């Protein structure tokens, strides 16, 4: 009797775990199968620059949106990376305990602000300021990049801070004892914490690339390649958010939107796998 | 050098504080308006309250709670207590991978699987299943650490006393309940603030009545903020301000509880 109960329990927990694995394959499968129609019918037309899904002869080119997404993501992750490292280093090397608690606490609260609220903030507060400063539209590249930085900075800072804290004390003490200045010690620690920081940057990149609400609300929504900081743009995810609500199910347009989703999924999976690989490789490189 | 670092850090800190305050303060007085929480919105959302959005969000969270607790907990238990080493690594990295997929992709999956293939349509149940698909890996990812942290000796001690697998597992859960609670709160908070998946699978911008069945569409707080800001004029913006202030206050409350629990755990 006891045996049966144990087997039953084991099979229940097994099913729960398998469901999770099945969900991932389900996601890949459904996104691919729904985008199949667009792949078959539009073919390489999917990568041209014009996106006019509701015209008489519709065009489904996502190149401009893809490039805008990439430019926005690269630029914002760069800013977040630089500022994040500086703040994490300050917290790790100089700040006292009270300061650390206060600053990390505030950042944790910021990380809890829903992205739709940040989008709202971008429209209601940042956009009028930008207009006053002379931009011709308040919802633009700069605004989106700013709000995305606010969204991801807390994340970047806490991840890099944690990996800096994990650097063994002996490493920095050894550096100090051979006469290194604080700055050189930081370089050493940074090098040691590199796997964690690489992981943080890649996650930030992934998050910005996939973030929908903020770009949908404050990026401006015009499908032109970005040329200046104050140009309105439309990244891939914004198109998904704005058009999916109104599209006819299983139409070509629907399928093309799923193709965008599939592309997002593939890029995100590639980044995740690459991150795992790089992190493991760097770890081996550092720890021998 | 130190001063450059300090200056940058404090600039960012002040910026973040300004962002929080500018979100919470402008809307906070609307939270004390009579009827803000109990009335339906009136005259194209320029008057009235946010009652249907609150009910929608609460219903959604309740369903997510019901789905995530058993599946997330059982999945975590399997990974830490039952699976052999390789299998548990595979499952854990699957959960990690799912955690990094953009939320809008979950929305697409939910649209094609729950809304269209299973025929639930734009509804409460589609939205909550979609949110749960997203929340379970997040839960597992965080909860696994807490179950792993339970010392081996404790497990061995319980087994030595003659407990079976089930009782051992119960003990493990009991001794990591603070961590599990933290994880659960964070998971719900994340599901609560997520917008894009609900926007695609279950939300309507305006409902005249409350959902009565699982297949009814709902209004929720985040999607209402989005709808008001994008589609309605200045006169309705006060409602979005109130809701933004409310949502952010709830999230701050959630993170405060988490911080307290964390401190409690560390003694």
Question: Overview of this structure, please?
Answer:
The complex is a heterodimer of chains A (288) and B (267). Chain A is an all-alpha fold. Chain A has helices spanning 2-42, 63-94, 97-111, 115-132, 141-165, 169-177, 182-192, 194-210, 213-218, 236-243, 252-287, and strands at 51-52, 59-60. In chain A, a hairpin with a 6-residue loop joins strand 1 and strand 2. The model of chain A has no long low-confidence stretch (mean pLDDT 88). With 267 residues, chain B is mostly helical. In chain B, 74% of the residues lie in helices and 1% in strands. Chain B is built from 11 helices and 2 strands. Chain B has helices at residues 2-28, 51-82, 85-99, 103-117, 124-148, 152-160, 165-175, 177-193, 196-201, 221-231, 237-265; strands at 41-42, 47-48. A two-stranded antiparallel sheet of chain B has the order 1-2. The radius of gyration of chain B is 22 Å and the shape is globular. The mean pLDDT of chain B is 89. Chains A and B meet through helix 1, helix 2, helix 3, helix 4 and helix 5 of A and helix 1, helix 2, helix 3, helix 4 and helix 5 of B.
